[in-house]
Amino acid sequence: MDSEIHKAARYDRQVRLWQRGGQARLEHSHVCVINGNTTSAEILKNLVLPGIGEFTIVDLKTVSDADLSGNFFLTETDVGSSIAEAICANLCELNADVRGNAVREDLLKLLNDSGFWRRFDVVVVTERIRKEQLERLEGILWPHNIPLMRVWTCGFSGAVRISRFETAVVDTHDPSPTFDLRLDCPWPELAAYADSFDLDELDDAEHAHVPYIVIYLKALEHWRKTNGSLLALPLSYPEKTDFRRNYVESMARNMGLETNFIEASQSIHRALQKTNVPASVAELFQRPETSDSSLRETKAPFWLLIRALKEFVSSSGGFLPLPGVLPDMVSTTSSYVLLQQIYRKKALEDKLTFLSIMLELHESLGFESDFDAETIANVCKNSALIHLSNGSQLNNHNNLLSRLSKSLEQSSDHNLLLVSYFGIVALDSLAEQESHDFSHFVQTFCDITRVPLQNLTEPIKNVLNELYIHNTSRYLNVCSYMGGIVGQEILKIVTAQYIPLDNLYVFDGIKSMSEKWKAL
Amino acid sequence: MQSLVNSSITPLLNTPGPFNEFPGEFSPLEAVKALKETRVLMIGAGGLGCEILKNLVFTGFRKIDIIDMDTIDVSNLNRQFLFRESDIGKSKAEAAAAFLRRRIKDESLEITSHFCAIQEKDQSFYRQFSVVICGLDNVEARRWINALLVGMVDSALNNLIPMVDGGTEGFRGQSRVIIPTVTSCFECSLDMLSPKLTYPVCTIANTPRLPEHCIEWASQLEWPRRFGDRKFDADIPEDVDLMHSIALARAKEFGIANVTRSLTLGVVKNIIPAIASTNAIIAASCCNEVFKLVTSCNPVLDNYMMYSGDESIFTYTYAHAKKANCPVCGTEVRAISALRWWTLRNLIDVLKTKQEFLLKLPSVAKADIPLYIALPEHLRLLTENNLNMKLIDLVSPGEEVVVTDANLPISMRLLVSKYDGPDVEPQDISSLLKS
């Protein structure tokens, strides 16, 4: 079989999620995992199978008998050899397209070479490394916006924390988008299309196939005349109900049979809304990163797009580029195809306008125009859903501490999952201390959380006790669960699609519950 | 060797934790023994199944049966890591079992594979197992095993076989624990499934607008018209090419864009996106429940965990409630209101298409009088004339019928509570449209 066809068949089930663009980015990504163990093997399995470009395992250790237990990706014959090389070889067997590297060097030495780390798209730490080494690593990655993930598995619990300066996603795959149809502000071609229908002249069959966009535009015109406002929209609940009953449904000849009117009546919330720039996007326009001086300095592609979008909005009278996606609606083929052409033509015009703004912007800043057509199309299609979040560094969690101290008495599942997180962090810290007994562990937890010992409730003590007595990082079900979670977050990050975790996730395998927070 | 395989789990079983429900009765030795001796049945050796088998074996389980009727396809290799290119065409159950036997050289490990449909095995087969773990990609098989396990419960004997069920779709999934007759069962939650996307036949035939409409026209109407009895086979590339070209011609005629080969395949095979990471998450969750259940080391999920990863990470854990009128585990009658113009055929269509029923081959009887029997053929021929009779003439308002299905071990009491609407069926407007 031809290799390209073969590849398409092999990756078919995932490319339906992130399309070829996402797959291409995945195939050009390089992920580094520090420490070879069950969790790191499970994470990498979930990346090697879908075809990540390259991965690197950093570990000095050799495989011991104990390492085999619970790890599918180490075999008896590997005992005594490099753990990084052994896991790497066993993983590469899963997919010949993936390149795996094993680095048997001292972490401390590698941390002296920041160039070594900058080649990666994500770096994951799967086992405790010394606190100062972790901070040093974070210091190298943070300025380059390379995500650092710290993953813990502890008995029946697991957690992951992501440290990244900024996460920007254009292709967010919003699962329930409302439709951007511009019904409140139709451009001339769309208005003319609606005017071309004279409903009274149509026979019953034609009347039952008028696209609901036309029904809305006519009903809205009528509603606006009656309500004396030429720009208003029915927005409140009573207004929408009135609009539906007395303007849309009243136009039908038979509300029980005309499926286009039934559809119109049911689609008001999704289809009819005020066209504006969402607050989340308008906020981006105000950011200092969009200024000439900042762009000259950073040349950040994301902020160049935002700046161009800002100029687009101001030149278009307050509108984002039209995505041009028309939902299916009851209609004859010819009416629908014509309507689709009108939306697509407008979307194409908007895209060309945006492109010329991008070109002018690059010229005025003295930059090469090195963006591609896919990027432009992507922004124009998703501009209302663009996502940006600013992360925090691993040792920032004051907001969670104050939340915990305020709600010590409430032993809700939510709070106890937060206790699990600080318990896991306390176990990390305990490992660097001399005494490892339970009372010392509890004291460490109290020191980290600044909760006085006498304030610990029974449910909190139970959570700590559970973590302490079942403290193993090798329980495969939890390693594999967290491997799935981390693998998935890496897929989202490297394909630059879907919205990744920001920034803390905790799983409790006893209650089979999980929770996420943003630690600051 | 065995102790090494188990050493990763011994810290979990050495001491009962604070959440152990029966710390006084818990014994580490008994827990390890239970892992070694409990017979587990895995249904499905696909994306979830590969993960499940790995997790069970590497957390101490030693007696595992795998049942799967599927063979390995190239599109499985992006997630089903127990299979290689050289395995394409082989039985999934057999290849997965063979891989683990090669991988673990432990004489106490007994993995038995069954290359067949689950419906081919009878109650005596299923009775051998203490727990069933399902990693399936279809609703029919889940309903069948669920109904069978609930039906096998004999309240006099303590013989419940718990069923742990996982399912994934793209970045989403769920895991759940079903204790037959105790918790809600799979049938109780049938209405939570997202309905399969279908298009009205009149749209496909008269007013296509989307590329999907053209593909459905090609597969539902044009293929049977052109090729008669020659069934379309989505696994034959030439058939897919042909279907694609028929759909493409239709699209061209109507000015519809974007009929691609990939979309054609997706529509005709009803392809559900699948990735390794979601399977790993759901399979691990299911195996964790089986581990807790068999070792009694901690409480088991009660009873449903929903998972979604497309926007950050979200899970929701709750006790899904039993339905009193569940046709599998409930005791109450289910009521339906009919329309006056319905024939028995309309009722059968409702039983086939409505989300709360979704039956494939329903039969309907009143007291002991068969109204329509789908199988066997001679009974169908005897009863099929009833299909055109008015329902109201066969079943009075307030009367009960019993619905069974040739594909499912269930029997449902259905009350036709009342009749509404006109006596004559209203006319369909689309059929009047001038072409």
UniProtKB/TrEMBL annotation, chain A:
Superkingdom as given in the UniProt entry: Eukaryota
Membrane-spanning segments: none
Entry's Gene Ontology BP terms: protein neddylation
A GO molecular-function descriptor: NEDD8 activating enzyme activity
UniProt pathway: Protein modification; protein neddylation
Subcellular location: Cytoplasm
UniProt GO cellular component terms: cytoplasm
Keyword set includes Cytoplasm: yes
Residue span(s) of domain THIF-type NAD/FAD binding fold: 11-513
UniProt keyword list: Cytoplasm, Ubl conjugation pathway
Main location: cytoplasm
SUPFAM superfamilies from the UniProt entry: Activating enzymes of the ubiquitin-like proteins
Similarity annotation: Belongs to the ubiquitin-activating E1 family. ULA1 subfamily.
Function noted in UniProt: Regulatory subunit of the dimeric UBA3-ULA1 E1 enzyme.
Name the record gives this protein: NEDD8-activating enzyme E1 regulatory subunit
Automatic annotation (TrEMBL), chain B:
Single GO MF annotation: NEDD8 activating enzyme activity
GO terms (BP aspect): protein neddylation
EC number: 6.2.1.64
Presence of keyword Ligase: yes
Catalytic activity: ATP + [NEDD8 protein] + [E1 NEDD8-activating enzyme]-L-cysteine = AMP + diphosphate + [E1 NEDD8-activating enzyme]-S-[NEDD8 protein]-yl-L-cysteine
Metabolic or biological pathway: Protein modification; protein neddylation
Function: Catalytic subunit of the dimeric E1 enzyme, which activates NEDD8.
Protein name, UniProt field: NEDD8-activating enzyme E1 catalytic subunit
